[in-house]
Specification:
The chain is an alpha/beta fold. The chain has 15 helices and 12 strands. Strands 5-11-12-10-9-6-7-8 form an 8-stranded mixed sheet, with helices on both faces. A 4-stranded antiparallel sheet has the order 1-2-3-4. The chain is globular and about 65 Å long.
Length: 382
C-alpha cells in the first residue's frame, strides 16, 4: 500500500510505539488505506460540485427574496433562512433555492429540511458506524449502558432528520433509555416516549440533563395496552398527529435466554438479562406471541400517525437454529406490510463496527458475527 507523502512515517511509528503497539506495519497500511480512500472521496465530491456548478451556469437564477412569497420564505429550513439574502432561486420552475455554499433545497419538499446532497447520502442502504462509548462524543453512554441495547442518539438523529421537519413530533412507544428522544432533542424535534420501566425512563432523564438537552415527554405504562386506548393516547399526544414512529421492540424472548456469545467466550456471567422481568414485556414472550402482539401495536399506532408519515422499525435476526432460519426482519416486513394503509418502502442495514468479533463455530462451522441490525421503513398511505 503506497503511503501518502504527507504522512510522517517516523513520527507516526514513534507515536504508535509509545502507545504500546507492536504490530505497526499492518496498522500503517490500514491508516494509509483509510487516508487514500478519504482523499479519493473528497476528490469525487469536488468534481461533482464542479460538474453541478458548470451545469447551473446556463440556468436562470433569481434573488430568493424577490421571487418567493412570504409563505414560502417562512417555510424554509433555518439553514436556508440564515443565508436567504445571498441565496438564489435557480431554474425556470423557481422551485429550487441554492445557498452561497452550493447547497440546494427544493421549496416543495414536504418531508424534511435536508439539502439534495444530504438526501442522496441518506439513501445509502448501508449505515456503518463506530460511535464512541466514552467521553463527550458518547452522548452519556456511561449513563445509558444499563440498558442491554441502547440506541445511539447520533444514529437516531440522522433517521429523525430524514423523516421529519424541525418542530415536528416523533413517537417511540418502546423508548428504553431514550435514544430516540435524545436524537429528537439533538435535531430540534419534539418527542413522546413510553416504557414499562421507570428505571429506564429515569436513566433517560439523567442522560438528557447531563447533555444539557430539554427532557422530552415520557410516560411509564404498558404501551401495548395504551395503544388499545386511542382516546387516552390522543390526550397524551395533545391531539396532534405524529410525523414519525420510531421503535426498537424487544425481540421475542431473545434477551431472556442464557448468553452463549461473548460472555461465554470470556467465562463471564451467562445469565439472561431481560429488559424487565414484567410479564407484559414483549421481550419475555415467545416469538409467535411477539409477532402477533407487535403487529397489533403498529396497527393501533397508525391512528396517531399523519398521512404519509413513517414507521421505522429496528430489529436484529436470531442465529439460525436447525430448521428455523430465524429471519425476524423478513417476518416483520411481511406482517406489517399486510396492515391496511401501511406500505413497506425498504430497508437500511446498520453495521455497528464497535461490536467485538469472536471465532464462533471455530474450527468446525460457520457462525456469523452479527454486527448489523435492520432498519425497516414503512409509510402510511391514507
Amino acid at each position: 500500500m503506497k503511503k501518502p507523502e504527507f504522512i510522517n512515517e517516523s513520527a507516526l511509528r514513534d507515536y504508535l510505539e509509545k502507545r504500546g503497539l507492536t504490530q505497526i506495519d499492518g496498522l500503517l497500511d490500514e491508516l494509509s488505506s483509510t487516508v487514500n480512500a478519504a482523499v479519493e472521496a473528497q476528490i469525487r465530491q469536488e468534481r461533482n460540485r464542479g460538474r453541478i456548478a458548470k451545469n447551473d451556469e446556463g440556468k436562470q437564477s433569481f434573488s430568493a427574496r424577490e421571487v418567493l412569497t412570504q409563505e414560502q420564505l417562512d417555510g424554509l429550513p433555518n439553514w436556508v433562512k440564515d443565508q436567504i439574502d445571498e441565496s438564489r432561486v435557480v431554474g425556470s420552475s423557481k422551485q429550487v433555492i441554492q445557498t452561497p455554499d452550493g447547497k440546494k433545497y427544493h421549496i416543495a419538499n414536504p418531508l424534511n429540511d435536508l439539502s439534495g446532497a444530504e438526501w442522496t447520502f441518506f439513501l445509502n442502504s448501508v449505515m456503518s458506524s463506530r460511535y464512541s462509548t466514552s467521553g463527550p462524543e458518547s452522548y452519556a453512554h456511561d449513563i445509558r449502558k444499563v440498558h442491554p441495547s441502547p440506541k445511539p442518539p447520533q444514529l437516531m438523529k440522522e433517521i429523525i432528520e430524514f423523516f421529519t421537519k424541525e418542530g415536528e413530533l416523533v413517537f417511540d412507544y418502546f423508548m428504553g433509555v431514550g435514544g430516540t428522544l435524545l436524537g429528537a432533542s439533538l435535531s430540534n424535534r419534539r418527542a413522546v416516549g413510553i416504557d414499562l420501566s421507570t428505571q429506564y425512563i429515569d436513566i433517560y432523564k439523567r442522560a438528557s440533563k447531563s447533555l444539557g438537552l430539554e427532557v422530552q415527554k415520557t410516560i411509564q405504562a404498558d404501551a401495548i395496552n395504551l395503544l388499545e386506548d386511542s382516546k387516552s393516547l390522543r390526550e397524551i399526544l395533545g391531539g396532534e398527529k405524529v410525523s414519525l414512529i420510531a421503535i426498537d421492540p424487544p425481540y421475542g424472548n431473545m434477551m431472556s435466554r442464557e448468553k452463549t456469545g461473548e460472555a461465554a467466550k470470556k467465562n463471564q456471567d451467562t445469565a439472561a438479562t431481560p429488559f424487565t422481568n414484567l410479564s407484559e414485556d414483549l421481550g419475555n414472550l415467545n416469538l409467535e406471541d411477539f409477532f402477533a402482539v407487535f403487529r397489533r401495536s403498529v396497527e393501533n399506532s397508525l391512528t396517531h400517525l399523519k398521512v404519509k408519515g413513517h414507521v421505522v422499525v429496528f430489529i436484529k435476526d436470531l442465529q439460525p437454529d436447525k430448521d428455523k432460519t430465524n429471519l425476524l426482519h423478513a417476518r416483520v416486513i411481511e406482517d406489517l406490510n399486510s396492515i391496511e394503509n401501511l406500505q413497506y418502502l425498504g430497508t437500511k442495514i446498520w453495521a455497528d463496527q464497535s461490536v467485538n468479533l469472536f471465532p464462533y463455530g471455530y474450527p468446525y462451522a460457520y457462525v456469523a458475527n452479527q454486527i448489523h441490525q435492520y432498519i425497516m421503513i414503512f409509510r402510511k398511505s391514507a
